[in-house]
Specification:
alpha/beta, Arc Repressor Mutant, subunit A, Rossmann fold, 2 domains, seven-stranded mixed sheet, two-stranded antiparallel sheet, 8 helices, about 20% strand, globular
């Protein structure tokens, strides 16, 4: 149960916690202290405890955290157990790469369908996911609602497709188009992904390195 409004910085750290806890669980580790968890993540024990306290009370003094239990709690906080489904718009190079290589299900998201306009992909399947014509988007979502729309369309089409998704009930947009989307509909969240930003940050850091 959330006790307070949670900062974006805390939210950004939660997936790191989940990944690390899952690795520990898979390795057979049963419990871990906040000191050890913080040390392995490059954070302080105080930061770990403060982040987790935003969502409730975890762990026991003198015992630490049960790894499996805390992993499951973080997964629940992240919504991994809520049956989210996604559709992907654009089955070009990037869209196809995501469909073939990104394991949506590991994040608790089922990739249900894809949409495009190209005759060579419409009516086919990519990695078991059916590809429909984009003209069928609203009809499909009327029958099979989705939580998330993944945008890998050309930038010029991004805003229009996003509005169609939101109009059909989609609440989250995972946007790979390099266009900053501005959607005013309440309750709709946009996560912009800019590969260039990460590369430029890396470029800066190696340029400044001694």
């Amino acid at each position: 149960m959330k006790k307070q409004k949670v900062s974006s910085a805390v939210i950004r750290r939660l997936p790191r916690y989940y990944r690390h806890l899952n690795d520990l669980y898979q390795a057979g580790v049963e419990r871990i202290s906040s000191n050890a968890l913080g040390s392995s993540l490059g954070l302080t024990a105080s930061q770990i405890r403060q982040d987790l306290s935003c969502f409730g009370e975890f762990g026991q003094q003198g015992y630490g955290y049960n790894v499996g239990t805390l992993r499951d709690e973080v997964a629940d906080i992240l919504g991994m157990n809520r049956g989210h489904s996604a559709v992907i718009l654009g089955v070009g190079n990037l869209g196809r790469a995501l469909m073939e290589n990104f394991h949506f299900e590991r994040s608790g998201v089922a990739l249900a369908a894809a949409f495009d306009v190209a005759p060579q992909v419409v009516g086919r399947q990519v990695s078991g996911v059916p590809v429909y014509h984009v003209d069928q988007l609203e009809e499909y979502l009327g029958r099979q609602p989705a939580s998330i729309g993944v945008l890998t369309v050309p930038g010029r089409a991004a805003a229009g497709i996003a509005k169609r998704l939101v109009g059909a009930g989609v609440k989250g947009i995972w946007n790979f188009t390099n266009i900053e989307l501005s959607l005013e509909e309440p309750g709709v969240v946009v996560e912009d992904v800019h590969f260039a930003d990460s590369l430029l940050a890396l470029s800066y850091m190696i340029s400044e390195a001694p």
